[in-house]
Structures are given as C-alpha cells and as structure tokens.
Amino acid sequence: MALVQHYVTGSKYVPLIREKDPQPPSLYSNTARRTPEALLEEELDFLRNQLAQMIRKENSLTSEAVVEVSRMLDIKINEYNHYINKRSKKID
C-alpha cells in the first residue's frame, strides 16, 4: 500500500510516495480491515516521528520546518479527537 509522505522544505510541501507493501492488500488481510481510528493513529505516529526527526535535524524548536510539521500534527490530533468524540456520542 502506498503511503504519501509530505516533507517540508522551507515553506513548501513536497509529497513523496513510499511503497510500504510491494503487493496490494488483499480483501481478507489485516491492512484491508483497519479502522479509521487505527489509520489516524498511524498518521499521528508518523507525524510525531517526523517532528522528532525534524527537531534533531534543524536543532531548533522554532524553525519554519519544525513549526510546519508541528502544525500538521496539531491538525491531525484535532481530527483524531473529533473522530473519537463523534464515535463516543454514537455509542451513548
């Protein structure tokens, strides 16, 4: 399954496609049955790792690149929280 990664270069995003699995997922595989929650969690983990790498690379918490990745992570955290709150309201 191809994952699109966004690398920040200055103030421009450069999308890159990375092949995680050489074969497309089967309808019966675990990857085909991932929940939206699990996919969001994977994206959060990816962005957290990207942020940590960017901080080490830039050696700064305030560089434009670090701030951009941090903003992307904030947006994804808000999306995750919205999904969780929406799901919990359906259960109640």
TrEMBL record:
Record key words, sorted: Coiled coil
Coiled coil regions, renumbered to chain: 37-64
InterPro entries: HLH_DNA-bd_sf, Spo0E-like, Spo0E-like_sf
GO biological process: regulation of sporulation
Top-level lineage group: Bacteria
Pfam assignment, any one: SpoOE-like
GO molecular function, one term: protein dimerization activity
Protein name: Aspartyl-phosphate phosphatase Spo0E family protein
